Amino acid sequence: MVMPARTDVPAAMLVLVLGGCGTTSASESPARPAGPSATVAVAAAGAASAEPSAPAPRRASSQGRHVYEGTVAGKPILLRLRCEGATCSGYYFYERIGESLRLVQTGPNAFDELVGIGKSARVTGHLAFDDAPGGERWVGTFTAPPRNAAEAPKGEPIVLSRVARTGTPRWMMRSFSDKSAKPANADCKVHIRSFELVGLGDEVQEERINGVFTPERLAVEHAEPIDTPLTETCGKGGAQCDESPKGYRILCRDFNGRSGLYLDVEARPTLLDERLLSVRSEFGFDGGGAHPSDGVTGVTVDLRDGHALDARDFLKDPSREPSWESFVPPAFFRRHGGFSRSDVRFALGTSEGDRRPPVWEKLEWTEFYLTRSGFELVPGVPEVMRILRHEVQHVPFARVASALLPSGPAAHLYAR
After folding, report:
1. Could you read off the pLDDT of 115-157 as tens digits, one per residue?
2. How does strand 137-143 pair with strand 276-286?
3. CA pair distance 203, 14, nearest whole angstrom
4. pTM of the prediction?
5. What CA–CA distance (Å, rounded) separates 240 from 261?
6. CATH architecture for residues 166-291
7. For the stretch 145-154, what's the b/e string if a residue is b when 16 or more beta carbons lie within 10 angstroms of its beta carbon?
8. Are 92 and 103 spatial neighbours (Cβ–Cβ below 8 Å)?
9. May I ask the CATH architecture of the domain 1-23+61-163?
10. What is the pLDDT of residues 322-380, one digit of tens each?
C-alpha cells in the first residue's frame, strides 16, 4: 500500500505568504541631469564610447526571484527571496539543519527571522543588508535578539553569492519536526526529512517542484497550520489534534481517543540530472487506523514539464510489462517462505487518463524509482506483508533493454 498523497489541500496551507514594509529598488534610475552638467555628461559618454569598454557589472534589481548561498556567522545557508513591487519575502535555512527560517521584511533591505507561524511565531534574528537583492553578491549583518537587558547586540557577517543557473541541478537537505505541546502527549510528533533543488535552468519550474517536496507539505496529513481552517485531518471540531509549539495542529489521537499518532518520512533523490528527478520515500505512520503502517514508495519527475513517469515513458508496449519477478533473486522468496511469488507484484504501472498532470497539480507516488543504472522496484504486497516493501529490488536497464523505448524521457540513461 502506498501512503496516500493529499491533493485537495488549500493553497494557504502549503505556502506561507510573508508580508513586509516597502523598499527602494536598486534598479530605479537616478534623476536625469539638466543644464550644463547634462552636456558634459553626454560629451564624456561620447568620448568613452570610442574606447573599448569592459562589461558592466550586473546591477542589483530587487524584482523577481532571488536564490543565494553563502554563510551567516560563518555557517553555510541557502536563502530564497521573492520580491514583488516594494515587498520582499522568503526564507532561508542552515544546510546542516534544513529547517525553514521565515524572512519578514521590516524596512529597506531589512528582515526579521521567524520560527513558527501564526500566534506561535517568534523573532530569532535580524538580517540587515547593505543594498537591495539582485546583484551577484549580497552582504550584510545578522544580529540575534539579546538574551537579557544587559547583553549588547552582536553583529555577525552575512556573505552571500547568487546561485548560478547552469541547468545542472543539485539538491540540499530540508527538514521539519514538530510535536504536541502537551508533555503527556509527547509521542504525538511529525518528523520529515526531504530536499530542495538548486540550480535548475528554469527558476519557475524549480519553485514549483520544490513546492511539491517541501517538508511542510509532506507533513500536511499530520500537521496543519493552526491559523488555517480546520480540515478532516483533525476530525470533528479538531478533537483529534493538539496544538504544537510551532503553531501547527498535530494529529495526536484517533476518533476513539487512542493517542500516540505519528508520522516519519524521509524523501531523498536517487537520481538527479538536467532531465529527471527520481525520489525514494521511506515512511512510517500511525494515522489512527487499525495499526501503524510503513514502507517505501517512489516517484520520477520529468523536469521539463513536471509529469510523473510511468510505464508509457519506458516501455515499447506499456500494456505488457516485463516479467519483473523473474529478475528477482530466488533468495528473496526463500527468505520469506510464508508467501508465494503470486503474493508479490512488481510493476511500473500506468496512471489513469491520457492527460499527464504535473506533480505540482497532483502528486501520485508509485512503486518504483530510478538510479543511474536501472529500476528500483518496490514489492507490491498486502498490508499484512508490509515489511517486504523495504526490500526494494534492483533491475538493471540492460536486463530489459529489448523492452525499452529507444527514445523517451529516460532514454539517455540506457540508450547506447
Report:
1. 999 889 999 999 999 999 999 999 999 999 988 888 888 899 9
2. unpaired
3. 19
4. 0.81
5. 10
6. 2-Layer Sandwich (3.30)
7. eeeeeeeeee
8. yes
9. Beta Barrel (2.40)
10. 999 999 888 887 777 666 677 889 999 998 877 789 999 999 999 999 999 999 999 99
